[in-house]
Amino acid sequence: MEVIIMKELLEGNEKLAEENRKYFKQRHLLAVNLMGAPGAGKTTLISAIAKELKDIPVGVIEGDISSSIDAENLEKQGLRSSQINTCGECHLDARVIRDGADQIDMHDGIVFIENVGNLICPAEFDLGESVRLLAASVPEGDDKPFKYVPMFSYVDVVALTKCDLKEAVGFDSDNFVKGLRAVSEAPVFEVSLKKNEKAAGIDTLARFLREKYEQM
Amino acid sequence: MHELPVVLDIIRVMDEEAEKNKIKKINKISLVIGELSSIIDESVQMYFEVAAKGHPCEGADLVFEHRPAMLRCQSCGKKFPHTRDFQCPDCGGDSILIKGTGREFYILSFDGQ
Lengths: 216, 113
Ligand SMILES: Nc1nc2c(ncn2[C@@H]2O[C@H](COP(=O)(O)OP(=O)(O)OP(=O)(O)O)[C@@H](O)[C@H]2O)c(=O)[nH]1
Ligand SMILES: [Mg+2]
Ligand SMILES: [Zn+2]
Hints:
The complex is a heterodimer of chains A (216) and B (113). Helices cover 38% and strands 23% of the residues of chain A. Chain A is built from 9 helices and 8 strands. In chain A, helix 1 packs parallel to helix 4 and helix 2 packs across helix 9. Chain A is globular, with a radius of gyration of 17 Å. Chain A starts with a strand and ends with a helix. By secondary structure, chain B is of the alpha+beta class. Chain B has a domain of 79 residues: hypothetical protein PF0899 fold, CATH 3.30.2320. Chain B is built from 2 helices and 6 strands; from the N terminus they run H-E-H-E-E-E-E-E. In chain B, the strands form 2 sheets. A 3-stranded mixed sheet of chain B has the order 2-1-6. In chain B, helix 1 crosses helix 2. The mean pLDDT of chain B is 94.
């Protein structure tokens, strides 16, 4: 006997993500799911945005395969943080986010969720966020939107990081934007956050997030 | 890379369905997987063989039906399955992704007795 069921997979994650979304809303928290390849500049980006948004409390849920280096560094800067070690898992899921959120126990503010460095799997797990932010770094190459369609078509906003390296790696900005526009309408913010040098572009990205927060 | 949670989900759903439909043995499971779900058939198959042991779906054939992401040509409007270069097969124009396509991810049906 053949039975047609049309049953969605990973529905359990979707349900928990909806619960998280309610939780964040009730607490007036703007949850930002920050994704990107390993080393794309995610932690650097959170740190710099928090410095721009001095008047808004910022918390971080750090997802990492095994260490807590990123969370410790951000805590030194005064951010409330919690660490989730995924023990080798390639992504965060909605279930672990609730634990992380309970640990930082914030009301009102912005919560960044730094996902595991991976340009593939996180695009399949809704965490209950209201903004999906991708950190795409210049050294990864300008052809990435064409090659990683699942991720680039999943996000709401793109931070093009390490723009100070454009010349050095011969990055073709037009090709990057062309690829991105083929799969997404997400706005792009170009930022440079090289250590010990003047930051560029972070103010406009911070303003974008501030507006999202104020509209909430 | 996250095929294990997917496989466990398939087994859980099949356990429920077997009980609901009073089925003892499931022979075939048909899955619909969109191109953008980045799931690899072989990995699903491999985990399934191990994880399904002792469940009604042990030994079932997995049938994968793939659905492409669809593109729309910005010059002539043609709709066609995603190609690497995003170029229209008719007029050579640039195309864009049709939102929501290629994200399918569900169990279509199963066969058992
Ligand atoms: N030149 C330059 N280097 C940067 C920039 N942003 C970050 N980096 C450097 O890139 C390296 C990785 O940055 P992180 O912020 O740790 O990247 P990440 O994405 O958090 O890394 P993982 O969490 O390990 O995946 C560090 O050495 C940063 O100093 C930038 O705008 N320009
Ligand atoms: Mg980091
Ligand atoms: Zn055409």
